[in-house]
Amino acid sequence: xxxxWDEPRMELxxxxxxxxxxxxxxxxxxxxxxxxxxxIGKAHRLGLTGKHGSKSAALKRARAFRARGSDQHLQRxxxxxxxxx
Length: 85
What we know:
Layout: H1 7-18, H2 23-30, H3 36-45, H4 55-70
Helix pairs in contact: 2-3
């Protein structure tokens, strides 16, 4: 059986998570049979954000960037000015 998530353990988890520690390192510091996945699950339930931002937000930015650049070849070039005959 794993150790309960009491207040001191959750505070340590929060402090280490916000400091940028890995889930594996946090699990080792907490001890008592706490696994990396348990740390990740608890952090998620506590509402702690991901360390590197949302992957979906990064994907949206990448798609928007590609969309802006990909239609440049479809834009019409300006017509040359008529020369006087």
